[in-house]
Amino acid sequence: MYAQQIANIELPTQSAVHLDGALAQPVSFFPAGTEIYAQGEKAGPLYQVEFGAVRVYRLLADGRRQISAFHMAGETFGFEADATHHFFAEAINATGIRVVRIAAVADMSRQLLPLALKGLIRAQEHLLVLGRQNAIERVAAFLVDMTERQGGLRQVELPMSRLDIGDYLGLTIETVSRVFTRLKDKGVIRLLGLRSIEILKQDVLLDMGE
Amino acid sequence: MYAQQIANIELPTQSAVHLDGALAQPVSFFPAGTEIYAQGEKAGPLYQVEFGAVRVYRLLADGRRQISAFHMAGETFGFEADATHHFFAEAINATGIRVVRIAAVADMSRQLLPLALKGLIRAQEHLLVLGRQNAIERVAAFLVDMTERQGGLRQVELPMSRLDIGDYLGLTIETVSRVFTRLKDKGVIRLLGLRSIEILKQDVLLDMGE
DNA sequence: CGTTCAGTTGAACGATGTCAAGGAGGGTGG
DNA sequence: CCACCCTCCTTGACATCGTTCAACTGAACG
Question: What percent of chain B has pLDDT above 70?
C-alpha cells in the first residue's frame, strides 16, 4: 500500500564506516518510496542514512498509519528489542543507506547505547506533542525540529509530503495544510515552494512548539 | 504542583541486585506522590522498581502534562541520553526503589542496551496509540497493556488515578471516565472497585486496542 | 455522621476529521 | 516548447469526537 518493492542497487563508496567493529558495507541506494524493511521481518543489521530521508512507521489494521520517526543524513536506525522488526521503514525519496551488519550487537553495545538512548528521548518527547499539543503547536514543534536538524538555518527543506507530516503529527493532511496557511497568514513562515519553507519569526515558532 | 518533596527512608533489603557490576544498593521507600527525580536535575543512577508504581512525565509551560510511561515492579527506568533528566519521575503510591549507581554506564552497556531498547519500542508503540487511536481504543490498549504486565489475569489492579490514565493516554479525566462507563455498559469490563477491574470480554478488548 | 476528594454524568462548545471540489506544480509525450 | 495529465496540495462546508464547565455521586476517613 505504502511501500513499493523495488530491488535496490549497491553503490561503491569511499565514506568512512562510523561504527568500529562492524563489517564495512557499501552504500545501498533506495529510490523514493521503496521499502527498507517491513514489520515482521527478521531484524539484525542497523542502517545509517548517508543521504536522503527515511520514515519509520506502524500501521493499524484499517490502514491508519503512525510515523514514529523520520531519519535524515547521519542518523542510525533499525534498533529492535528482539530479533523481529516491529515497524516498517521506507525511503521517502532517493536515499543512500549504509547497512551495518554487526557480528554481535552485544559486543558493540558501548557504541550503540547512546544512539538507542537518543532515539528513546526523541520518542518520549514526541509523546508530549501527540498527547498534549494542538494542531498548530504540533506543526510548530515539527518545523523547529526540522530546522534544528538542518543546522538552524532560516530556510528549511522538507523532504516529506503533507501526508507524511500528518501521519507523523497525528493529524490529517487537510489540518496540516490549514495550519501551514495560518502560519503563513500570520507572517510566521513563508512558503518558497511546497516543500521549502522560510522561517520569518523563529521566536514565535519556538514558543508555539512549547 | 504534582510532586511533593518528602525525604524518603532507606529500607534494609535482602533481594538480589539485578545488574552485575553495579554498586549494590538498599531499597529506598517513596511515599505516594513523592518525587524520585525532576526535569533538569543531574542524571546518573538508574532506578529499579521493587514494589509499587512510578509515573514518568513532562510538563508544558501551562501545566499540561504528558505521562510517557508507567513503571511497575521489576522494571528499570531513569535512562537519559546526556547527564540531565529530561523528565520528572514520581511514585504513584507507596513504592520501593532500588537506586543503582553505576560506576561507568559504558561498562555496563551490554546489560543496559536491552533495557533501553525495550523502553524505545514501548514508547514508539505508544506513539501509535496517541497519534492514531480514538478514546475507546486508547483505553482498551491501556487495559490490555496493564493486564499483560500483571500476568494476563482477568482481574487488573490499576495503581494510578483517572487523571494519571488521562495524562498517559492524552485524554481528559472525564473522557476516561466515560469510556470506562461505556465498556462497562457493553459488558466488556466490570468495575470491582474504582481501581480494580475485571475483564469480561478479553477478545473484544484486544481488537479494540488493535 | 460530616467532610473531602476522586470519579461520574450532563449539556454545550470547539477543534479536528470527513467529504468534496478546485488549484497548482512537475513530469511526460507529442 | 507546449499541452496534458497526474499527483499533491489547498480550501470550503459540515459532521463528529473529545473538551470544557458545572453539578452530582459515592467512597474513604476522621
Answer: 87
Nearest to B88 by CA among B102, B99, B98, B78: B78
Domain end marker among A68, A92, A126: A126
| C-alpha cell belonging to residue A186 | 500570520
Beta strand spans in chain B (E)? 9-11, 27-30, 35-37, 46-51, 53-59, 65-72, 76-77, 88-91, 95-100, 155-157, 189-193, 196-199
Residues in chain B: 210
Measured from the Cβ of residue B17, the count of other Cβ atoms closer than 10 Å reads 14
- B39/B57 same-domain check: yes
Convert the pLDDT of each residue in B25-77 to its tens digit.
Answer: 789 999 999 999 999 999 999 999 999 999 999 999 999 999 999 999 999 99
pLDDT in tens, chain A (210 residues): 444 444 444 444 444 446 766 666 789 999 999 999 999 999 999 999 999 999 999 999 999 999 999 999 999 999 999 999 999 999 999 999 999 887 655 567 788 899 999 999 999 999 999 999 999 999 999 999 999 999 989 999 999 999 999 999 999 999 999 999 999 999 999 999 999 999 999 999 999 987
- The amino acid occupying position A142 is F
B119 and B151 share one domain: no
Domain boundary among A74, A105, A126: A126
Task: For an interface test with B, give the residue of A75, A120, A126, A165 to mutate (most B CBs within 10 A).
Answer: A120
Residue A173 within a domain = yes
List the single best residue of B19, B57, B70, B117 to mutate versus A (max A Cβ within 10 A).
B117
Distance in angstroms, CA of B33 to C1' of D5? 63
DSSP code, position A106: G
Report how far residue A76's alpha carbon sits from residue B107's, in angstroms, rounded to the nearest whole number: 22
Note whether B97 and B187 are same-domain residues: no
Q: How far is the CA of A157 from the C1' of D3 (A)?
A: 30
